[in-house]
Amino acid sequence: SRPVRVAVRVNLDAGLPQRWDRFGFNLENGQAWRAVQQVAAAKELVLVGLHCHLGTFILEPAAYGTAATRLAALAQRAARELGQTIDYLDLGGGFPSLNTLKGSYLPGPDLVPDFDDYAAAVAEALQGAGFAPEALPLLVLEAGRALVDEAGTLLGTVLATKRLADGRRAAVLDFGVNLLFTAYWYDHGVSPAQPLAGAPEPTVLYGPLCMNIDVVRDSIALPPLTAGDQLVVHRVGAYNLSQWQQFITLRPNVVLLDMQGNPHVIREAETLAYLQQGERVPAHLE
Known about the structure:
Layout: E1 4-11, E2 25-26, H1 31-41, E3 45-51, H2 61-82, E4 88-90, H3 108-111, H4 115-127, E5 138-140, H5 144-148, E6 154-163, E7 169-173, E8 190-192, E9 201-206, E10 215-222, E11 230-233, H6 240-243, E12 254-257, E13 263-267, H7 272-276
Parallel strand pairs: 1-2, 1-3, 3-4, 4-5, 7-9
Antiparallel strand pairs: 6-7, 6-11, 8-11, 9-10, 12-13
């Protein structure tokens, strides 16, 4: 009996090299405006928001200013021509963390803009868009990775070490891309969890899986490692718990450190019994 609240997802040209146009209605070719018109004309629907998502790990704050300007213009057109008041503008996510992208010449902390730069670009665009102060739509930002990457740390153990055929030092760890999916994208910071002696040298860090692609770091300077040494991988809070897998090894404890530094297990390590609990054997095979 009540109309359904609807937001329209828009894809647009914000000046980025790659455009994410798989989802949403395109602004430049008129799709977005036609979608807005159709929602406004439907008695069962009420248009309340406009949304866009520019991409991932976006290092250009100005792109968000461009997106805010263009969404604001679409909202004002809807108000002017259709009598539709847009309650909120959602500029989506894509904000980077301080991780270092593979192939980057600079480490993440030296490359990633300050979050204030993104905020300034968006605020300037909306303040200059012509809204009356009392008519400014609510601004929604999906800060995801930029917030939670720093909150996650992975602690693992060296299982074995060796010299590769080309002379490089290598270590096999008890975790790999099965737990650290983002190792495909980032050169994660890795540091020893205990003091180690010896001069650092380039080291390849492998996971325990039976695949050559199971590489945590292609090359990182570390002191000589031995079996039993523990390593800390930094900034793993985003995407890993949602994408880890039970391939060859089961998933470990997830531990929360509270503000006083006290540990709390918030997800227990998996066991074979846990893995098998949902399985059923047909009666004729028992």
